[in-house]
Amino acid sequence: MQTPSMSEATKDIEKVLNRYDPYLQTCRTNVLAGLSKAPLSPVLIEYFERGKMLRPLLVFVAASTVGADPMAVTKAAEAIELLHGASLIHDDIVDESDERRGLPSLHVRLGLGTALVLGDYLLSQAFAVLSEGQAIHAQAKVLEAVNTLSRQAQRCCRGQVQELVQYDRLDPEEAYLSIVRDKTASQFVASTTIGAILGGGTRSQIEALDEYGTNVGLAFQLRDDMLDLIGEAHTLGKPAGKSLAQDRPMLPLIYLDKYGSLEARAEYRRMRQAGFERSKLVDLLERENIFERVEAVHEDYVAASLKALENLPPTDEIEALQTLALYVTVRRS
């Protein structure tokens, strides 16, 4: 399968965004209103005003896919956005990132301790907001949704720990994919499955959307790794090269060490010892055709996400999920 150009993906995503804009606006309005009661609310509101709200969008589309009114899962979408915000705050602390969403990271702006507590506050608030769904959903469904959010949040933390520890007993590629499934893909899975659970989806529909979310998350992280190497800060919403500077596992570097020529691997080792110069590393990766290898894996995950949707009845909402899978995982420089 060939990944579409950014212009093609942008054209299709605009249709999806226009269709779901009323739900996204309601979600954002409610999130900001809730944050007005939070500690240091002006700072948090400024931060959340800039969110792309991709994951809440997945909640709405997943619910619509199983035949529900998207507005009925607004609380779930709000909870996902709060959870995502909390994870970004904690991630920036761990990675010592100075910027997020075009603003100074919260730990830079407010101090490490304050940012950490605010992240914890957002995490707890996510569960409180999701529990409010009992006003319109059966208690059993809300409990299942809360349990799902808890399980996926724990997976996110587990992936973060594994990334920091980098267990030597695992194959590097296997370890990397395990980290991504937990740290990144878990939030996509939470978005799609919780939307389907509260939307009244069948078990097979929920499982299909779980598989879809997992593969979109994997492809999304591969794109993010590529951007960290070849992109710019304004594209990422955070400083480029940060994962490289922190020596985080990245598939292009794993493949360079695994498939690169003897000369390339020796040059890579020298770079690691002397400190990476990003442009020279990118040149080396291009000479060794590593980006092409990574792109092939990326395409496999995109294709797998689309194949998972074949288990659902064809509707306009399925087309929206297809568009989202292609848009959020398209390779950009």
CATH class: Mainly Alpha
How many beta strands in the DSSP annotation? Answer: 2
Mean pLDDT: 89
Computed structural class: mainly alpha
Helix percentage range:
over 70%
Radius of gyration: 20 Å
Identify low-pLDDT runs. 1-5
Strand order of the largest sheet: 1-2
How many structural units, i.e. domains? 1
Helix count from the secondary structure assignment: 17
By CATH, the superfamily comes out as Farnesyl Diphosphate Synthase
Order of helices and strands: HHHHEEHHHHHHHHHHHHH
Oligomeric composition of the shown chains: single chain
Strand composition percent: under 5%
Form type:
globular
CATH topology: Farnesyl Diphosphate Synthase
Taking the alpha carbons of the first and last residues, their distance comes to 20 Å
In a nutshell, what does this entry contain?
The protein is mainly α.
Structure explained in plain terms:
The protein has 333 residues and is mainly α. The chain has a single domain, classed as Farnesyl Diphosphate Synthase (Orthogonal Bundle), CATH 1.10.600. The protein has 17 helices and two strands. It has a two-stranded antiparallel sheet. It is globular and about 65 Å long. 44% of the residues are buried. The N terminus is likely disordered.
